[in-house]
Design brief:
The structure is a homodimer of 102-residue chains. By secondary structure, the first copy, chain A, is of the alpha+beta class. In chain A, 31% of the residues lie in helices and 23% in strands. The longest helix of chain A is centred in the middle third of the chain and has 14 residues, at 29-42. The mean pLDDT of chain A is 91.
Chain lengths: 102, 102
């Protein structure tokens, strides 16, 4: 296998049983997955993987998105505007500071 | 929030709907989550987060486990023996080479 150049995690609030619950899912993080993957394709950002995850335990700041291996955590990813900001930063090799956590 | 010092992803094969399917889940990756979290506590490895994920797209090498921000991908994590090998390496600040991918 080839490792992704970047790996974007999107909190899907899955519990152990797999049921999506919790804040990130309730705030619509699941709906952003399709947009995110479409944008990556449109922008030609090959080699970037997107994965939905179980609860990332930062619920009070959700919806959460993490970019690895950069180890950049973003919060308040509530819509396409915030996804665009994150991807703009990725393309520029920078960080969308206004959305970062920690 | 405080970022985890290490973040271990365990493929739970979740599809977009949240249903755990696919190879990693069928091979019992879900059963390893509890063991992994117990071992981290027993070893006093504080600050390490564990998160189940959707399909990590390395199904032919599953069950998959990823350690970030190290960006180390492991395959064939079929039981406690392999989890122990990964944690032994983490404690030693090294990598369980025999299980690595990519």
């Amino acid at each position: 296998m080839t490792k992704p150049t970047k790996h974007i995690l999107v909190c899907g609030s899955f519990r152990a049983s797999g049921a999506p619950q919790g804040i990130c899912a309730r705030k619509g993080s699941g709906n952003l997955l399709g947009y995110l993957e479409g944008e990556l394709a449109d922008r030609g950002l090959d080699g970037i993987s997107v994965t939905a995850t179980g609860c990332l335990k930062a619920c009070d700041r959700g919806p959460i998105l993490v970019v690895y291996p950069d180890n950049v955590w973003y919060g308040g990813i509530e819509g396409e505007e915030q996804v665009d900001a994150v991807l703009d930063a990725l393309e520029a090799g920078s960080i969308a500071e206004e959305l970062t956590l920690g």
